[in-house]
Batch of 2 targets.
Target 1
Amino acid sequence: MLFSARAEYACLAMLELAAQYGNPHPVRLSEIASKHGITSPRFLVQILIQLNKAGLVTSTRGAAGGYHLAKKPTDITLADVVAAVEGLEPPTARVKKRRPASPLAGALQDVWDRIREAYDEFLRTQQTILQETTLAQLVEAGQPPQYVI
C-alpha cells in the first residue's frame, strides 16, 4: 500500500500536535496547514474529524479553539493514524490455484505467484514499521541538532 494524501496529511497534522504536546493552547487548523503546505483546509478538517472519531485528537471549539492529542505521543503509532483515515489494509486477495491450461500459462502463473509473495512480504514489513514508529520518535528525529558552545 502506498500512502494517499489523506494519510500523509493526517500524519503531518498528528506530528504537529505531537510537537506541541503539553502546550495548554490548542493548535489551530490554519497553523497546521500553513506549516506543512496543506493547501486545502477543508480536506484537513475532514481528516481531523476522522482522527477525533478514532480517539486520537480532541477538539476545542470557539475563537481560541483548535486541536490537541488525545493520548501521549509515545502511545500513538503511525499505524494508528493511517488506520484512522484509511481503514485497515485488507489482506491480499488470494487467487485460487488451478491447473494451468498450458505450459506457458504455468510459467506466467509462477511469475504472478512470486510477485504476490513479494507484495505480501512488503505489506507485512510496512505494517511492522508503522506499528513500531511512534509520534514521539518522529518528533525527536525531526528536531534540529543542538550544539553546546
Note: The longest strand covers residues 57-60.
Target 2
Amino acid sequence: MQLRMTNQREMILRELNKSKGHLTADELYERVRKSMPRISLATVYRNLEILSEAGIVRKLEISGRQKRFDSEIEEHDHIYCVQCHHIENLLIDKSRMKVPTPDSVKGYTITGCRLEVTGLCPECQQKLSKTKKKTTSQKGDNIMGCGCKKDSLTDEQKQVLEAMAKCDGPCASKDIASATGLEAKEVSCRITALKKKGYVDSPVRCKYAITSEGKTAIKS
C-alpha cells in the first residue's frame, strides 16, 4: 500500500533534508513547529516511525542513545564521536569483510549488517589537546588551585610565617595578628593559603605552627 504523504510528513521530510544531518525527533520537532505551531512532539515521533518503516527515512540507533533519523536512505555506515555525540556518514568498502557462515549465526537469517565506528571528532581532539597542554603547564609550574605558585610567598604570608617561627610553640591567630600588625581576618586568610602550601600546620585546635617547609620558604 502506498503511503499517503500528509502536510505534516512533507514538512518533517523537508526539515530533515534541509538539515543534511542526523536529527533526533526532538530536534526535528523544534524545527517543524516554527512552521506548524500546533504540531505535537508525539505526532513528529509517530510520523518518523511511519516514514522509517516505509523506507523513506533511515532510523539510526547508535550506542544505545536517542534515535536519530537520516534522509539519506542508501546503504552507508556512520562514525560517532563519543565526546560531543556528533554523527557523520562513513563509506566503508565491505567487499573484503568476512561474511558470517550459517554455523556462526546460530540459525539466524541475516537481514542486514550495520558497522558502527566510534572515536573523537577533530574538534573534540583539539579541545582535549588544549586541556592536556594547560594541565601539563600548570603541573610544570607547580600551580595551586588559587593560581599562585606553591613556592611563592606574598609579603603578608612571609610576615605570618616569620611571626610563627619566633613562637616557642603553636600560636593563636590573634597572637600572630598582634605580632604582624595585620587584621585578624587577614591573618586567617593567609594561614588558610599557607596550610594549602604545606607551610603551616595546626597541631593544636585553633593554634598554628610553621612546618619545616615553611621555615625553608622564608629563608629562600
Note: The domain at 7-95+110-121 is CATH 1.10.10.10 (Arc Repressor Mutant, subunit A).
